[in-house]
């Protein structure tokens, strides 16, 4: 491959007690590409995503992001990196119920020290982009599931991350809403140059990616980066 990967994982092992979640899993992601992680239930997809995002520390193996070794970084340094360089979209319950939607979208900017007005102005731009500007002053409990996921995508994009990690982002949505979320997410990532790592078991969702990899029994089948 011509371009150097932005994020590389090599030989990841992870066990939870007697359960092996990852076994010599390897993965590489180029800047700006959209990759779908597929595979059977329990095969290790979410564990791989969480390791790549610096949320779970693998038992063995290395993860390099933009020249930095994630596995040996301090927890503080990894948290800082997650806030500045990564965005996250999960399946459920990720919005803070007490905050309005615009406050939720602005939250990552506020955590990075931005003033409320500027943060909410930028949040409002992303909400318009994701076609949920009408939910700005509602709370998450007052909007639909599809709107909630689009608010979550706006929140993931608001810090201009280089990588967005999405774990079953359409898993709780009907197919029409799911497709809309995927279209808006991938359009926005292509415009901003953010890479997307997406866990899904739905071929229809994976179809929005540039490339699919398959996890089986904790190992990755990745034709493109195979030695
Ligand atoms: N926190 C945990 N504690 C104990 N076991 C875990 C934990 N997280 C994952 N596992 C186990 O590790 C294996 C891999 O789980 P993982 O969630 O990564 O799979 P998955 O492919 O994402 O599954 P699914 O498609 O069902 O979400 C499974 O056997 C799972 O039960």
From TrEMBL:
InterPro entries from the xrefs? AAA+_ATPase (IPR003593), ABC_transporter-like_ATP-bd (IPR003439), ABC_transpr_LolD-like (IPR015854), MacB-like_ATP-bd (IPR017911), P-loop_NTPase (IPR027417)
Q: Identify the residues that the record assigns to the ABC transporter domain, covering every copy.
A: 7-226
The source's superkingdom equals Bacteria
Give this protein's Gene Ontology molecular function annotations: ATP binding
Alphabetical keyword list: ATP-binding, Nucleotide-binding, Transport
Alphabetized Pfam families for the sequence: ABC_tran
What PANTHER family does UniProt report for this protein, alphabetically? ABC TRANSPORTER RELATED (PTHR24220:SF685), IMPORT ATP-BINDING PROTEIN (PTHR24220)
* Name under which the protein is recorded: ABC transporter ATP-binding protein
Q: Which organism is it from?
A: Streptomyces flavochromogenes
